[in-house]
Amino acid sequence: MTRGNDIAAVFFDLDGTLIDSAPDLVVAMDRLRSEQGEARVDVAHIGHVVSKGGRAMLRRGFPGADEARIELLLPRFLDLYAEAIATHTRTYPGIDDALTAFEARGIRWGVVTNKPGRLARAVMAALALDRRCAALVAGDCLPQRKPDPAPLLHACMLAGVAASRSIYVGDDARDIEAGRRAGMITVAAAWGYLDGEDAASWSADHIAATPADLVPLLGLD
Question: Which of 13, 24, 171, 213 is catalytic?
Fold first, then answer.
């Protein structure tokens, strides 16, 4: 098992794993409902499915909307989100300490996300993470998206590391599947947007309850 000095890189999913972006997405959903003339409701519950993507959030924000309407709403939803992408978004408590620990040991870290590239790059820059990461692979970088392993293998190539010496951390079953298929050690982020799912059911190599658990879990303490 890859641990301690054998680890070359740690890659993260973005939303729900590295950053808590739900607050800004909820604001964008509220603005979209207002634009659409919908009654004001509590849309906080869309935060539970952020890791499932924009369409899943819209299905929560516009219950009863058919798929054709969801597709029509998606571009405007993403544009509204882009206008205020990091007003409330922050890294999860303990993430920065983990990243600092990796960097101090010469372990590279990066992000592999299904989020569109323009949004992923913008939020990483807003949080001053873009200059620190060794690789950022977004949902439109390749024809394939998670759970396909191709984006993770591309991140390894960009970072100059072997997948067999890399870790992938994510808060969705697709993350764990992608990591396994890429030949990485997988860690389920139980602090993320699980929407009631049991992270243990994903068959990850490890489960981390909080970001603070990552360093000792990987034998780096």
Answer: 13
